[in-house]
Input
Amino acid sequence: MKARASVLLALLAAACGPKPTLPVTPRNPSIEAQHPPPIQFIEDDYARALSEARTRHVPLVIDAWAPWCHTCLSMRAFVFTDEVLRRPSGRFVWLSLDTEREDNSPLVSKLDVRVLPTLFVVDSASEQVALAWPGSLTASELVTLLDDASAGAGPRGPLAVVALVTRLSDEKRLPECVNAGADEAPRMPRGTALADVLRCAIGCAEDLPEDAPERRRLAELAALGERVVSDASQPILADDRSDLYDYVVGALHDLGRSRDAKRLAGAWASFLEGEAARAPTPTARAVFDAHRLLAYLAIGSPLRAVAMLAQSERDFPKDYNPPARLGAAYLAMKRYDDALAASNRALERAYGPRKLRLWSLQADILLAKGDTPGARVALRAAVDFARGVPLTGSYPKLLGTLEKRLAELK
Output
């Protein structure tokens, strides 16, 4: 869904080298042979997936994701493993597409991937996209979406409201986005669609000028959002609940209600700690790392993130995300040498255009240290790297931002 604008969240949400080892549950082939997962993904091989789909005369489902995207990891850990998906899984061929890999960039551009994750249903005969769904879903909601796609129907009911509000947001029709979200959300059933509509409408309201009349509806959107996140019976993924927490905390800050924002951020942190403690594997626990850091920053306690991120770095020593997030936490704590060391470790492990975010973080750390020449070196490295690799999605805009920062430092 619509990403929040902060640089830190862009990092956390934090030439193609070898693909790193990502947080995945270790495989046991003998167990998988007896109890195969409900979905068998083909990894980063569009030609093979398309050929198999054509041979079987079935559509192709593409999961466009990235290793820094906590919502993508939530889908992989909690949704695609759900037995509910075993029934519809055989009606499709499934492709997992890492959007950060240089060799995937032509397909990423062709699909016009703008939001992560995005699920595409592709007609294997014509290669036409029959459905593109940005964001996450519970397993049962995904079954409904796939059933509708198989029947040739677009999103219906609450999912149609999500599609409407998202389209208004994408088209920058912000007043209409806010009004549609504020009008429809109170009438919607509980579930992911309600959370999506609230997040999108809150984001549209925050992007409006201060004097826009529709911006006054931010208060009612925040109030409903707080009721939704506080309702433990809401049938939504923990990651989606956490996303909505983030938006509501931001909205309360925008409304000048800092005390309420900090109170809700405390509840957000407690919620995430509980989910992490119940996670069945280190992979599932690490899904919550990014938002736990954001929640700790929101309550002014970045130190609380250090132990969990250090544990994730031990669990996944080739993954760049834990040290990148540690760098952000240490920066907030003004432990600049530790932040710089963590950012260096992240850069050593990173690949693809995500490295631009890491160099940007490194420049922030060096500027905080008073090392302007060092910050220029980091930004120059980012710009030079970006000019030599394919840039998709939001990365061309990020390159422009980095070029502007570099020019200002000169």
